[in-house]
Amino acid sequence: MSAVSCSASLLPLLGGSATNASAAASYICQQFDTVSAQLSDTTFAVDNTYLLFSAYLVFAMQLGFAMLCAGSVRAKNTMNIMLTNVLDAAAGGLSYYLFGYAFAFGAPSNGFIGRHAFGLKDFPYQTAAGTTFDYSFFLYQWAFAIAAAGITSGSIAERTQFVAYLIYSSFLTGFVYPIVSHWFWSGDGWAGAARSDGNLLFGSGVIDFAGSGVVHMVGGIAGLWGALIEGPRIGRFDRSGRSVALRGHSASLVVLGTFLLWFGWYGFNPGSFLTILKSYGSRGAFYGQWSAVGRTAVTTTLAGCTAALTTLFGKRLLVGHWNVMDVCNGLLGGFAAITSGCAVVEPWAAIICGFVASWVLIGANKLAAIFKYDDPLEAAQLHGGCGAWGLIFTGLFAAKNLVREVYGPIPGSDAGRHYGLFMGGGGKLLAAQLIQILVIIGWVTATMAPLFYGLNKINLLRISSEDEMQGMDLTRHGGFAYVYHDDEEGSNLPTTFKLRKIEPTNTNTPTP
Amino acid sequence: MAASLSCSADQLAPLFGPNTTNAAAAADYICRQFSAVSDKFVDTGYAIDTTYLLFSAYLVFSMQLGFAMLCAGSVRAKNTMNIMLTNVLDAAAGGLFYYMFGFAFAFGSPSNGFIGRHFFGLKAVPSSSFDYSNFLYQWAFAIAAAGITSGSIAERTQFVAYLIYSSFLTGFVYPVVSHWFWSGDGWASATNTDNLLFGSGVIDFAGSGVVHMVGGIAGLWGAFIEGPRIGRFDRSGRSVALRGHSASLVVLGTFLLWFGWYGFNPGSFNKILVTYPDASGSYYGQWSAVGRTAVTTTLAGCTAALTTLFGKRILSGHWNVTDVCNGLLGGFAAITAGCSVVEPWAAVICGFVAALVLIGCNYLAEKVKYDDPLEAAQLHGGCGAWGVIFTALFATEKYVSEVYPDKPGRPYGLFMGGGGRLLGAHVIQILVIIGWVSATMGPLFYGLHKLNLLRISAEDEMAGMDLTRHGGFAYVYHDEEDSHKNGIPMGKIGPVGSS
Amino acid sequence: MAASLSCSADQLAPLFGPNTTNAAAAADYICRQFSAVSDKFVDTGYAIDTTYLLFSAYLVFSMQLGFAMLCAGSVRAKNTMNIMLTNVLDAAAGGLFYYMFGFAFAFGSPSNGFIGRHFFGLKAVPSSSFDYSNFLYQWAFAIAAAGITSGSIAERTQFVAYLIYSSFLTGFVYPVVSHWFWSGDGWASATNTDNLLFGSGVIDFAGSGVVHMVGGIAGLWGAFIEGPRIGRFDRSGRSVALRGHSASLVVLGTFLLWFGWYGFNPGSFNKILVTYPDASGSYYGQWSAVGRTAVTTTLAGCTAALTTLFGKRILSGHWNVTDVCNGLLGGFAAITAGCSVVEPWAAVICGFVAALVLIGCNYLAEKVKYDDPLEAAQLHGGCGAWGVIFTALFATEKYVSEVYPDKPGRPYGLFMGGGGRLLGAHVIQILVIIGWVSATMGPLFYGLHKLNLLRISAEDEMAGMDLTRHGGFAYVYHDEEDSHKNGIPMGKIGPVGSS
Question: Could you tell me which SUPFAM superfamilies the record lists for this protein (chains B, C) (predicted)?
Fold first, then answer.
């Protein structure tokens, strides 16, 4: 802690006439050293508390994904999709522990891939530059990794073999995603704005603060390839090619999942600061990283809110009724978009971000319908499309002073950081952001597409059409997710005919 | 903050005296160190307080999820999509409106006692008094108020009416009330620096009045003007319970609200690193008061739940989980006003009475044929009002002076020997809130009613709004075969002509 | 905390010597500054630790929500209201009883090694050792123990029996156990200041034994005494699975428990701002140990889930999400004892074995026709006991001495070269917990059984308790008119003859 530094330079000031000037000086300075050490302890405690609770919130998103996915598929596949969500978290935990984290953040390393801390060896540690890697950081990054896998599972829901899930999920969290996060987030990554040697892409580096690209686009594009290769669900497009909505079985679960994701996003975005106790220049002022953290939470909220409202009215005009599921997706699209720039844009810009994000989502869905692309959760459209928009948005609206505060000066250079095009910062940041989009598309395509294609070729990807018609829960997962009716309990007959009719079948006569 | 840690070179230098080689420089050197330390403490304080406030805000936000689940479970299945959409939109529309002007009306100081007038669109935020985290926290409160109201008018209200009242409530009605009682400029606030109402001001710590009564009374007018749901009272006027469709969602929602209330009540301190007078370095400070607030909140809710359990068992003859959930929430709504200034044992009393108040209000509502699907007006209005009174009776001298330190010798609870001035202020608060909300929301609902924008048609109501307005039913538990049989296209959405 | 920062004017003044104009005054001035700094550190420390503990307590509380959803999803639809009501009441009744005497029995020091005896009704709290936040945190633990038991006896127990055992468990049985192992006075506690059991004491950091085994064994006796549900084993004695009604609720509950476990295990440190010896100012301190604990917890659960997935696939032939959820929770229950003192790689072993223990226990339960709707006794009892053993095998020297610093040179895990004394203490713990819970809860359940207060009638059980005792079915997905027509009574739930 450089803030408090007492040194022997106190000695000559006290001078020789004090009986024991050097002892006095060293006495006083020892006290200050203690103070300084305690301040450093306090800082670690505060920052770790902040990061850990943020990580817990991000973990809650996994619950959100599980509920969102469960509610968005048909009842007959609920067990299947929930199992994949539980396993994303569990398998992701092990593979990220064994090597994912090492690939992503194992410094020192080259710009492409990390190579230390496999199995959390020699953890925690502090680099020569003074960066600390602690368990809380691992936990936080793990929660991010499983979120990426969770996105993909939505795209290929209702028609994918369980084994295929296990394979792609381990591969994605253990290799594909960690490498992307190394590029853009690690101090060694070739394209990150936080690169520690100051040699930044286009002199700017990519500002993907909490991962519109690193997390959402990776998950979305992986899902795109999976869903594209295995084709739409049976019945999703009728003989004449018309799109037929296959509705999820429970709107309550969708809303529950959406709100939980919203809740968790407060860990995802503001938490990405990693520390909260950091002053911006002037010490002792009310303005510091704590304030930036709050601002990030506000921009996140506003982007989501705007996207939800825009979707509400947009869909009302296009479809003719109010639809809560669409609003939920719009909301999430707004969040996915603001994730990249949340820390470096002003609140008013977040509103623009959310507004455009909802139209991007509507457009992407239109496009998907035209190309007969079937994505039960709109995950590729939402996370891929809105995520890409978010990166561009950051290239346009990043504010000068906020970029400077959040990313600090460029190491070893006094050149100012580049910022958003519309804010007068020139096009270099935008160019870096575009490179990021292309590189992510390229990398994920080059890794995940062959994987899905291979699985498809060896018949491990798609389930049989009998399984699909019956529902995977009955054929593979030991039974249906819901047993609301009673008596026949325990019989092994297929339950399809016994399921109760649920919705109002008749036109009701008014009860007086 | 740094008050006690003040090193002055001017004071220290003479102590070193002329014989020290460079007394002034030495003193200056030492004092600069101390001022660096002091600055670090300021930074640390901001970081801790912001962490505390932000996570509290996240918890309060999770109450919106709780409301959504509670409302969804408490209505009939055919209206689930509708009520959940309103809850999502309370949060979303509330976010924009509160950003644009709600926060400004509430806390835009300097201002008059009636309404704030700065910080529109978060201009000039952050400042030394308001940071972004304050905004986020207050926003979560504002949407909670709107969420309460949506419960009262569920199952029979047009969606457009929701949008209108919700924006109006979060953007104007609620912010003005919170300005009165919580802003430093508010005419009835206990933190008003000039002139306290009755020399006391209103102690509505986390908003039994400001949030719960506002939401409840707004709901009361809405539900009253549009009348009961079809079938709620039969021809002979007997009450017929229209049960919600899922007790699981009700319990889920209740527990989430309980969880969120730990942000609502203890979080209302806004700061946790505050030392109480003459106690720096001791174990007792605001952190302890925060913990106490969490405890009083818990105890009030627990007592109310148990009281309701046995009370209802005696009255109705069976154990009922949804009633217990409502009782629990009634206890929380009541303790919200006084949570920080009462002893834990008083919280038990608060919860006990709150449960009886709720049972009484429900009885009354049935008598006057008032229909509120979530009992929101009874619960948040009735128990909220009791909570305001309760605070004026049981606030202790010590806690009041610690939590509201600006003015020494404040009035406190009547039963604790603090005289009646606090009670006077609190009665005023109840009357003023009833008056203001009635004067704004009553005409609004009445106008919507006159324009036929408030209540849905009887056909829509019988069929359920989900089918007629929201593109379909919320649940599809059955498989394709069913709909093949009865041939009603709504139910059938699945693959007809599959390959 | 302030120990290392001690400025003494008596020491400093002679150093300035007589030539300084006023050496005593200068030294005093400087030292008063330092003592102000020291006080600020104390304040800051309390604020951080309380923030940490309170939010951990909120997370632990959210486990109650997780239990409620897990239980609700795991029982048949006809008993959903019943089981959810018990979960709400565990929390509510637990709140009152733990406030009145549970906390006093557990932590009321100074006391003897068997039971505490101060702090009844939170009298004399806050003190320098216990603040309100400690109470809240411990309350959340107590209700978790009761929540475990309620799962074992689900679907066939009278509601009154729930109320009785739940109050007794949270008010007496559990607090006494926690006093033994966690209080500084407890006879087997690792923090006992006089005399450690086997020179070691029991390291049950977050309560594999204290919480999970207590809940599990209490459930075992309850379920054992009242016997299996009707239809659980057919005439020929073959086991028939009675599936829960909603896998979605099971998964929701499991994830919420996972979420809450991050409060349960890392939160058990109680403080986060603690420096490890000779390491002030370094990046390594309790904050790092807290993170490590969260990581070991995660890894144990993840491994157990994967092991269960593949194990069950081999044994039963399909992938089963509810089994995976139970395996996951078994891993968490096992790592709870040692989470803070083992390396992450050891947690992987812990989870792997826990999954096998659970599968084994379930196999055994089927053999002896023991019926536990939530597998609570197997999961919390069996895996909890494994966790206690595991800790005694794998606790590392370094972490044990950091987390339990009072006594240097403590025994640690057998496999890590620390000898068998810790294992001895832990075997004692398992035996003592089994003995104590059996001696208290066994007679209680037996007595209730004899008085015909334990098990419901066969008619109630067939019809479902919701209809007979709780005023109706939990779900109404279809409209009233339907059931009128098809005449199936299940559908119709509304109170027909209500006032």
Answer: Ammonium transporter (SSF111352)
Residue B300, pLDDT > 70, answer yes
Mean pLDDT comparison of B2-6, C45-49, C232-236, highest-scoring range? C45-49
A309 contacts on B by Cβ (under 8 Å): 89, 92-93, 96
Q: Are B51 and A290 in contact (CB under 8 A)?
A: yes
pLDDT-wise least confident of B318-327, C66-75, C459-468: C459-468
Is C288–A134 a contact, with Cβ atoms under 8 angstroms apart?
yes
In a domain, C488, yes or no: no
**Looking at the domain assignment, is residue B2 inside a domain?**
no
For residue C246, the SS3 value is strand
Q: How many of the other CB atoms lie within 10 Å of CB of B357? A: 25
* A334-348, C2-16, C183-197: the lowest-pLDDT one: C2-16
Q: What is the DSSP string of C355-376?
A: HHHHHHHHHHHHHTT---TT-H
The per-residue pLDDT for C21 is: 64
* CB contact residues (below 8 A), chain A span 430-489, against chain C: 476-479, 481-486, 489
Within a 13 Å sphere around the CA of C277, how many CA atoms are in the beta-carbon half?
10
Cβ density class A73-96: b for 16+ within 10 Å, e for less: bbbbbbbbbbbbbbbbbbbbbbbb
Domain that holds residue B433: 37-469
Min Cα–Cα distance to chain B from C418, Å: 37
User: What is the ipTM score, two decimals?
Assistant: 0.91
Subunits adjacent to chain C (3 or more Cβ pairs under 8 Å): A, B
pLDDT-derived band at C6, boundaries 50, 70, 90: low
CA distance C45 to C55: 16
pLDDT confidence bin for A183, thresholds 50/70/90? very high
Q: Do C46 and B287 touch (CB under 8 A)?
A: yes
> How far, in Å, are A413, C130, C269, C492 from residue C264 at the CA level?
47, 18, 10, 42
Report the residue from B30, B248, B292 with minimal CB separation from C30.
B30
Q: C170: which chain B residues are within 8 Å (Cβ-Cβ)?
A: none
pLDDT at A13: 63
User: Residue B464: which of B221, B245, B163, B226 has the closest Cα?
Assistant: B245
Q: Do the domain assignments include residue B17?
A: no
CA C364 – CA A507 distance, rounded (Å): 54
Distance from CA of A408 to the nearest CA of C (A): 22
* Residue partners of A307: CB distance under 8 A and separation at least 6: A330, A331, A333, A334, A335, A337, A354, A355, A357, A358, A361
**Residue B110 domain-assigned (yes or no):** yes
Q: Is C4 within 8 Å of A40 when comparing Cβ atoms?
A: no
In 3-state terms, what secondary structure has residue B44? helix
CA dist C2 and C31 (Å) reads 13
The 10s digit of each residue's pLDDT in B193-220 is 778 888 889 999 999 999 999 999 999 9
Distance of alpha carbon A19 from alpha carbon C14, whole angstroms? 7
Dist CA B328 CA B229 (whole Å): 26
Using DSSP's 3-state secondary structure scheme, residue B275 falls into: strand
CATH number at residue C71: 1.10.3430.10
pLDDT tops 80 at residue B221: yes
Q: Which residue has the tokens 């006027």?
A: B237
Q: Model's pTM, two decimal places?
A: 0.92
Residue among C110, C96, C266, C95 nearest C179 (CA): C110
Q: Determine whether the interchain pair C16/A18 forms a contact, defined as Cβ–Cβ distance below 8 Å.
A: yes
Of A18, A91, A253, the CB nearest to C17: A18
Dump pLDDT digits (tens) for C229-270: 998 988 888 888 888 889 999 999 999 999 999 999 999 999
Domain count, chain C: 1
Query: DSSP string of C407-444?
Result: SSS----GGGT--SHHHHHHHHHHHHHHHHHHHHHHHH
